[in-house]
Amino acid sequence: xxxxxxxxxxxxxxxxxxxxxxxxxxxxxxxxxxxxxxxxxxxxxxxxxxxxxxxxxxxxxxxxxxxxxxxxxxxxxxxxxxxxxxxxxxxxxxxxxxxxxxxxxxxxxxxxxxxxxxxxxxxxxxxxxxxxxxxxxxxxxxxxxxxxxxxxxxxxxxxxxxxxxxxxxxxxxxxxxxxxxxxxxxxxxxxxxxxxxxxxxxxxxxxxxxxxxxxxxxxxxxxxxxxxxxxxxxxxxxxxxxxxxxxxxxxxxxxxxxxxxxxxxxxxxxxxxxxxxxxxxxxxxxxxxxxxxxxxxxxxxxxxxxxxxxxxxxxxxxxxxxxxxxxxxxxxxxxxxxxxxxxxxxxxxxxxxxxxxxxxxxxxxxxxxxxxxxxxxxxxxxxxxxxxxxxxxxxxxxxxxxxxxxxxxxxxxxxxxxxxxxxxxxxx
Length: 428
Ligand SMILES: NC(=O)c1ccc[n+]([C@@H]2O[C@H](COP(=O)([O-])OP(=O)(O)OC[C@H]3O[C@@H](n4cnc5c(N)ncnc54)[C@H](O)[C@@H]3O)[C@@H](O)[C@H]2O)c1
Known about the structure:
Layout: H1 20-31, H2 35-47, E1 54-59, H3 63-74, E2 78-83, H4 91-98, E3 104-106, H5 113-124, E4 131-134, H6 138-145, E5 155-158, H7 161-172, E6 180-182, H8 187-210, E7 218-222, H9 226-237, E8 241-245, H10 249-257, E9 261-262, H11 265-268, E10 274-277, H12 287-291, E11 298-301, H13 311-317, E12 320-326, E13 329-333, E14 339-343, H14 349-352, H15 359-379, E15 387-389, H16 392-405, H17 415-422
Parallel strand pairs: 1-2, 1-4, 2-3, 4-5, 5-6, 6-15, 7-8, 7-10, 8-9, 10-11, 11-14
Antiparallel strand pairs: 12-13, 13-14
The protein binds nicotinamide-adenine-dinucleotide.
Nicotinamide-adenine-dinucleotide is lined by residues 160-162, 194, 198, 222-228, 245-248, 251, 278-281, 284, 302-304, 348, 350.
């Protein structure tokens, strides 16, 4: 394993190197709204936490990811990047990153499943990386399934709920070979990324793809977790009548107390005009629900994998499919003439039909991951091969730096307050 200068991207793995200039301008635009990564870039350039190390990353290839990749480079890493979704790569960004051999990129939009995994294997390289950053668990999974290459990585970070759940299942079976940090589980990340970022960008993807007016529409959100909460609040903010489906009574209670109507998906199916899944589970919207939906109902998914809407069942139900009603919209005609509209093939709608999270959101999410990865570079030998939380001071440090950049100041506890909070003797 050797770090330092990244290897040039071999020919044929990005869509069009000619898009580099456009991509670079978009990366610079995002970077201006990413004060945390900009500050960390200066710090990492001085401290070089990844000197001599290789980082393999599997992330949506967006301008914000490019800012992170360049930050890791500034910290001394050789970086190889594959996409974490076959459809979400922004080809101009991939070209800009690959230009000049800055980052080794294996990503282009619209690849098939085989190519998607081939790209991940290429990013892992023949020798294997020192550190990994994953988004959904496909890179870590591939690393465990490929014939052993070199020694296992020192460790890595996982950036989304589904990936952390997969890692926990691996760890429970004793199958995880190295420590992974659950970067998606910090309070700051869940608030800013899952709730605010996903809330806004999923509605952005829905609107860009379908062009519907949300005001007055009945929108069904399946899953009232960190993402579903944000999606439901944003849809309501635009005037939609939002219905929630849940399997967890506490999450359902939260939805009721926030004024949402909660019902089963079977009851919501004939009512909804727009359906958005955000559960991290599988087969949430099934043939039975689709058969009960209204003409023109729109189906979109915000969960990490394309398993929440049973797309195969939709194909089986349909007598005709128009694959290109609009960009990222397919129409499925049912035997009685009703049409159901599927967005982005049932994949993450905010990353396929829109640009993903705003840069301010990824600034915090990637800032936490970058700080956690730098910490891991120096501490991995102290960690067992398990899923570990982000050290709490990293979450607080990232939030503090973002607050400072936003011009917000907070109070500090006084000595008397600290003493009061530490004592059990002081009462009324
Ligand atoms: N699109 C994005 O940009 C983005 C961003 C962050 C996370 N994610 C992904 O979104 C998914 C959800 O993440 P989260 O952080 O909100 O998870 P979460 O665990 O906080 O919430 C999921 C909710 O769905 C509920 N649920 C599970 N199965 C259900 C079912 N069959 N019907 C109704 N509700 C059900 C759970 O009870 C839970 O409340 C994950 O796959 C995650 O990786 C996507």
